[in-house]
Amino acid sequence: MAESKPRKAAAPKQAAKQSAVKPKQPEPHLAMVRRARKINRILAETYPYAHPELDFENPFQLLIATVLSAQTTDLRVNQTTPALFAKYPTPEDLAAANPEGVEEILRPCGFFRAKTRSVIGLSKALTEDFGGEVPGKLEDLVKLPGVGRKTAFVVLGNAFGRPGITVDTHFQRLVRRWKWTDETDPDKIEAVVGALFPKSDWTDLSHHVIWHGRRICHARKPACGACPIAPLCPAYGEGETDPEKAKKLLKYEKGGYPGQRLNPPQAYLDAGGKPAPPLGAG
């Protein structure tokens, strides 16, 4: 009986495939800068009238409204501040206010006791240290009770025209999704993202990113299929990619829908005064 020749051990196909897969190379910094700036240009075209969504008439009102916006919506703040500013129109008025009266007005905003302490405290500081005027410098603003860098940059950028990056929860979420940074500390995010753009772009960049986070790139289920920057997004596919299903996820917000070119507030109403659908929604 003839002896059978021993068979050669076959190399595992899976191991061969794994060895052929090259590790993904990190994106070169220059390429990332170009991609980030292109994203901002597209968002600027998508939201040409992006602006602060808090209602205000002067730096003091914007400062108070921004402090009140913590842990609540801008809509809720805008529903609350008219009564507050009607009763306490100046820092001097609010500094001398009875806390219980202020608490009653701010109750709908949540955390109303802490917010009452902050707005009365910062009003006293404005009255005693700055002659009743909101200072236009970062180092002065952050000394006020309840005012951090995020609030300070909102005020500087939108009341004084001084560039700043507003790192709120939307901004943090989106810049990490886009792989602009892996940082989680707001101050570090501010520094890293600020280095990607000219300083003159910082305020508008903040508005573009925040508007996009509120309208399309949601935390739990982003509308990837309706996103204008989908080809540039490393996280594409985390949300709904079907265009028709994605359109249903778009959030209707004050000041217009994605892609609209009309001035607010008419931008979000049709000719009959009713909410209009997003452009391209059929």
Describe the structure.
Residues 254-282 have low confidence and may be disordered. Helix 10 crosses helix 12 (202-215). It is built from 13 helices and no strands. The longest helix is centred in the N-terminal third of the chain and has 18 residues, at 29-46. The protein has helices at 13-20, 29-46, 59-68, 74-87, 91-95, 99-106, 112-129, 138-141, 149-159, 169-177, 186-194, 202-215, 243-247. The chain folds into two domains: 59-159, Hypothetical protein, domain 2 (Endonuclease III, domain 1, Orthogonal Bundle); 169-268, Endonuclease Iii, domain 2 (Orthogonal Bundle). The chain is mainly alpha-helical and 282 residues long. The radius of gyration is 25 Å and the shape is globular. This is Endonuclease III. Its cofactor is [4Fe-4S] cluster.
Helix residue percentage: 40-55%
The counted number of beta strands is 0
Biggest sheet layout: none
Which fold name corresponds to the CATH topology of the largest domain?
A: Endonuclease III, domain 1
Tell me the name of the CATH homologous superfamily of the largest domain.
Hypothetical protein, domain 2
- Unreliable residue stretches: 254-282
The average pLDDT is: 85
- What is the distance, rounded to the nearest whole angstrom, between the alpha carbons of the first and last residues? 79 Å
Organism: Streptomyces antibioticus
Protein name: Endonuclease III
GO molecular function, one term: 4 iron, 4 sulfur cluster binding
Catalytic activity: 2'-deoxyribonucleotide-(2'-deoxyribose 5'-phosphate)-2'-deoxyribonucleotide-DNA = a 3'-end 2'-deoxyribonucleotide-(2,3-dehydro-2,3-deoxyribose 5'-phosphate)-DNA + a 5'-end 5'-phospho-2'-deoxyribonucleoside-DNA + H(+)
